[in-house]
Amino acid sequence: MSGSPNNSGFSLIEVALAIGVFALAIVSILGVLGPAVEEMEAISVSNEANDVVSRISEALPRLDQDSDISTSSFDEVFGAVASEPMVLYAFVVEGEGFQLTPSTGDVSNVIGRVFAIRLTVSGVNPSGLISPSGDSFTINGYTRETYPEAYLALRVDLHHMPTPEPGTGYSPPPLTEDNFLFSYHTAINR
To answer: What confidence category does residue 65 fall into, taking pLDDT thresholds of 50, 70 and 90?
Structure first.
């Protein structure tokens, strides 16, 4: 009786080859998903930053250096940025909404990201009124009362800060190129 062995299973080489093809497919999928997730995060930050920009434009005429958004106007902003940059923080607090403040304060209920806004005198102001000062400009000896223009042009630098951990103290890092998002110019009118 000459019988041949039953060859109904897979050989070791076939199994190893199938595992290799499967592993290659998984690695390829993961390689595509990584950049896609990073791109989605960048889009999300950009969308939130655009929302912050529109809120800054609404809040700037009412901005006060010493407190949250209040009823002050051009005089307060002029006084705050005339000689040095002003840094504000923007974030959303659960139950309180959008906050634009000179300090991060209690961030235990922050929803989403924290943005730092650096306001400086813009170089697009009339040249006789401003002088270069480091990476920004200062007003040439004018006070709020003697400043001759009806507007003050401002440069707004937006920085993305790390999201605070709930229930912990928050000390924002310095504003650097690493957390810089973009700049734009705006103006506040008298």
So the answer is: very low
Distance CA 178, CA 99 (A): 24
Instruction: Supply the DSSP symbol for 140.
Output: S
Site of tokens 């009118």: 189
Phi then psi for residue 69, to 5 deg, are -55, 130
Q: Tell me the domain boundaries of the chain.
A: 37-189
CA distance 35 to 14: 33
| Residue 159 contacts residue 115 (beta carbons within 8 Å) | yes
What does the mean pLDDT of the chain come to?
A: 80
14, two tokens: 């076939």
* Helix, strand or coil, per DSSP, at residue 37: helix
* pTM (whole model) above 0.85: no
